[in-house]
Write a structure and sequence with these properties.
binds adenosine-5'-triphosphate; ABC-2 type transport system ATP-binding protein; antibiotic resistance; ATP hydrolysis activity; ATP-binding; alpha/beta; 9 strands
Length: 245
């Protein structure tokens, strides 16, 4: 057990929506500078888990500490150090790319320059475009730029490259590697095992609202006696990610 404060500490989280136990018991410790993947079949509780960690939902049980802060009590301070990109960002559809970026940049004391953000997610040519005229992949990239606008120390990214073509997906991986090398801690929900293998130091496998394994990608493959991470997840969960996605 290290004495250094973790970037993210989640202990025994539980969350129920009516009769659905979305998160049953999730504990997770992410060290500063790590990239940790969260994988599992549809409905395993991945999005609910990261919403609990980001303070967007209140857990029924358990506690969350992000960089020493309580996501709900220290909401304003946490907003300065945490960037969140969600699966379905609700952005103002009639605004231009730079207007949206500048709106979000205005929330932070030392935001990344607009040009740097545009360059990071390769939207410089679309800077004057209206949000609703962007392609799905471009909208996705803009939501990532918004998550990174305030130079967060922790970034939570949900299905980073879903909807991106293979070339755009690889470019996005390069972007995340650059963000990682600047020391940012990243929690990354993904269905793409190639992405997880390339970007993640460790992977939390969720099933029915519980972490059933937490290890390096190679460690999970070994533990499952598998040859690929895809196969390892199928063995560990007893479910096929491809079928469920
Ligand atoms: N707002 C909500 N109200 C009711 N039920 C919900 C709500 N959000 C999620 N659920 C249910 O909770 C369970 C966990 O959902 P969650 O979105 O956390 O899983 P997930 O692993 O992120 O799934 P996916 O891979 O499909 O995004 C599912 O059964 C889902 O239908």
């Amino acid at each position: 057990m290290t004495s250094v404060e973790p970037a993210i500490l989640a202990e025994n989280l539980a969350k129920r929506y009516g009769r659905i136990q979305a998160v049953a018991d999730v504990s997770l410790r992410v060290e500063v500078g790590e990239v940790v993947g969260v994988v599992g079949t549809n409905g395993a509780g991945k999005t609910t888990t990261i919403e609990l960690i980001a303070g967007m939902r209140v857990p029924d049980r358990g506690r969350v500490v992000v960089l020493g802060l309580d996501p709900r009590r220290d909401r304003a301070r946490l907003r300065q150090v945490l960037g969140v990109q969600l699966q379905h960002a609700h952005l103002h559809h009639a605004l231009r790319v730079t207007e949206l970026l500048d709106l979000y940049r205005s929330f932070y004391p030392d935001p990344r320059p607009t040009d740097e953000l545009l360059d990071l997610v390769e939207l410089t040519d679309q800077r004057r475009s209206i949000f609703e005229k962007l392609s799905g992949g471009q909208q996705q990239r803009l939501s990532i730029a918004i998550a990174l606008a305030g130079r967060p120390r922790v970034a939570i990214l949900d299905e980073l490259t879903t909807g991106l073509d293979p070339k755009a997906r690889r470019r996005m991986w390069g972007t995340i590697e650059r963000i990682k090398s600047s020391g940012v801690t990243i929690l990354l929900v993904s269905h793409a095992m190639e992405e997880v293998e390339r970007l993640c130091d460790r992977v939390a496998v969720l099933d029915a609202g519980r972490v059933i394994a937490l290890d390096t990608p190679a460690g999970l493959v070994d533990r499952a006696g598998a040859t690929t991470l895809d196969d390892a997840i199928v063995t560990l969960t007893g479910k096929n990610l491809e079928d469920a996605a």
